[in-house]
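Good morning C.,

I know you're traveling, so I'll keep this short. The sequence:
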Amino acid sequence: YGIPAALIDPVRMDIVLLGRTITTIFAFTLLVALYEAVRRLTEDRLLALFSTFLLLTSRSFLFTSHSARYDILSALAILLGVYLLLRSRVSNLRTSFVTSLLVAASMLVTIHVTIALSLAAIVIVIGRSGSHWARSLASFSAGFIGFVILLVGFSVLTGQTTLLGTSNHATFALNIQDIPALRIYSRSVQSANLIQRWSMLKQYALGYIFVFVAIAIVSTIQYFRKRRFIAISLSAVTILIVLLSWLEFESSAPSSYLIYVLPVLSIAVALAMKRLLAEQPRTWTIAFASILLAVFAYRDVPGKYAKGYHLMTANSLAVGAALGEIE
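The tokens, ready to paste straight into the viewer:
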């Protein structure tokens, strides 16, 4: 975002439009990366298309792909990190150390990426190291702490007042206080957090709720037919840990943070459908669900009578007012 803004004359292109253009490029890359990740994890092109379509038709993707913010970039980094973790075969000290360096290096994107990947990486290291999990975890911790020390040292040498640059200390303290995990035993805080997340999902990712309800129904039917629980894989646990990180370690106030986990939820949908449904029922289910998603998404198309038009118009007016105040 910074380099194009520095190279392009603001007279030729408005800085907000420039930011949105860069976000659009990242958004397209995110869709391609999601398709390819699901295709390689499931070896099913139809599931890959459906998972990508599920993200594409969400209101969260509509908004974040049209904003001059780095949320789409963070979502892309989290998606790539989760994919690499699911495909990795961490089994020794060396690979654990390299994994820790990659996770710690995600702080160079945003701290949100590191929050999403840290606990998931620890689960992968422990789960795939067998009886040597303690040594692998120690190697992972050493690599992570070492990278953080180097990053802090670089910040100090360059005269930055915080780990990743200068910032308002009052704002930083406010963001820290807004993390639900810091008040994990407060019933009111956790209840409010769950209510906010649920409202956010209903408003910006309704299609995901419908799909997961359908998956839950199919799982229940299969349980009563076979009278045995479906085993939970390490991949499922890893995805659940990423969702837990978003639930407890991210502020629930910014709705744009939802895009961080939607690509991961798309992977979860694909893996669940691959496991629960045979090929022919899965094909018909995907066709029916895609039609419903398209109908719901049509309401947000920025046409004359659609909701998206009014929302984007209000957004444009707000941006214009903000730029007017700056000038």
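Safe travels,
E.
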